[in-house]
């Protein structure tokens, strides 16, 4: 059965195409900076937003019109797999991602849930044989079911810790079975509502223990995926322990986990933490911890995780700048952890949304590569810090000085001269590059 029979394969038609079912910038074989776009832009479809979610929000019921809705239970899960692989094929997307709960319904007990998962995983594996689309990552949904109300690995209830561990164990086995490139931990409820009833030290220690057990088990079964922590400051908890990359990095170092994990950075989580997307990418990159990206965007007027499809070209350009400087994302990718708006309830909106997201990152890649080729930001930064390449600056960075010597130097200074940061000039130049790239120059 075909679910998207009005839509055929999406092809690249170039910037002037008016065909809504064509890529304007994403040209998979085009070489940018020595790599094809396909190699750089390892896009993934998020199963939960695209095939499982129904558009409901805290104030209203679902709105999405989906042909698989006529089924229920395991039949619906199977219909979603069929629809998903047709969608992947038509979009030409190299990867997908899922939570356990997205692909199969929970059973009456854990054993039944495992059985449901096994059946759907076998079906997915079968579909993957004839498909170009691979699994970027899978993860355990340890936040939706009421049992996780006080957390999962950081729950006050040891039974919940054990249950969560079992779900991660199963997730690692599924990841191995399907050849996942990464395994993600998003601690949706790994945080607290209030400190008044929270043993923060025990919760953090337990989280550390939990991650070590996962690392050990993956090793034991020979699942060599890259482990990723996905920071988020809040929502649904008041405070989430993996607040942002810097906090997550300190946590990993405290618990001796830093060599086993990298970060999966989500744009809207960065903005919720009061950072720009590129701040989180930069912080991870300079610490060798940039693993993968959840490519979406938030709404600056709203204070929650709106998970919009990424269309802000300024943001995709600065994000791709970090990714290129990182030498790409390695085994990671760009997962559209994004949902069509509640009012975009028709099936075709799923295509428009993904095409817009893929084109936005492709355009960002092109502009960012040009900025790098022409050393626009490199030159700005090199000039701005030139005082550290000679004289006292060089002595500072080479560790050849101390407070006494610096005092002596400072006492001898006649005047201190600063230079303009030229921020407006830099921004104007970036705009020029954005517009030139779109004009095909
Ligand atoms: C929630 C979120 C999750 C993770 C995976 O904000 O981003 O969907 O990406 O659990
Ligand atoms: Co995410």
Q: How far apart are the termini?
A: 44 Å
Report the order of strands and helices. Answer: EEEEHEHHEHHEHEEHEEHEHHEHEHHHHH
The unreliable regions are none
Could you tell me the mean pLDDT? 97
Largest sheet: 8 strands, parallel, barrel
Which strand order does the major sheet show? 5-6-7-8-10-12-13-14
E-strand count: 14
Using brief descriptors, characterize the structure shown.
binds D-xylulose; 441 residues; single chain; globular; two-stranded parallel sheet; alpha/beta; 46% helix; binds cobalt (II) ion
SSE layout and pairings?
Layout lengths: L10 E2 L9 E2 L7 E2 L2 E2 H4 L2 E4 H6 L20 H19 L3 E5 H4 L6 H20 L4 E6 L18 H21 L3 E4 L5 E2 L7 H22 L4 E4 L9 E2 L4 H10 L6 E6 H6 L4 H10 L3 E5 L18 H13 L8 E3 L11 H26 L2 H9 L6 H7 L5 H9 L11 H16 L3
Parallel strand pairs: 1-2, 5-6, 5-14, 6-7, 7-8, 8-10, 10-12, 12-13, 13-14
Antiparallel strand pairs: 3-4, 9-11
Bound molecules: D-xylulose (XUL) and cobalt (II) ion (CO).
Task: Report what the structure shows.
The structure is a single chain. With 441 residues, this protein is α/β, with parallel strands linked by helices. Helices cover 46% and strands 11% of the residues. The two termini are 44 Å apart. The model has no long low-confidence stretch (mean pLDDT 97). The site of cobalt (II) ion (CO) has 5 residues, from loops.
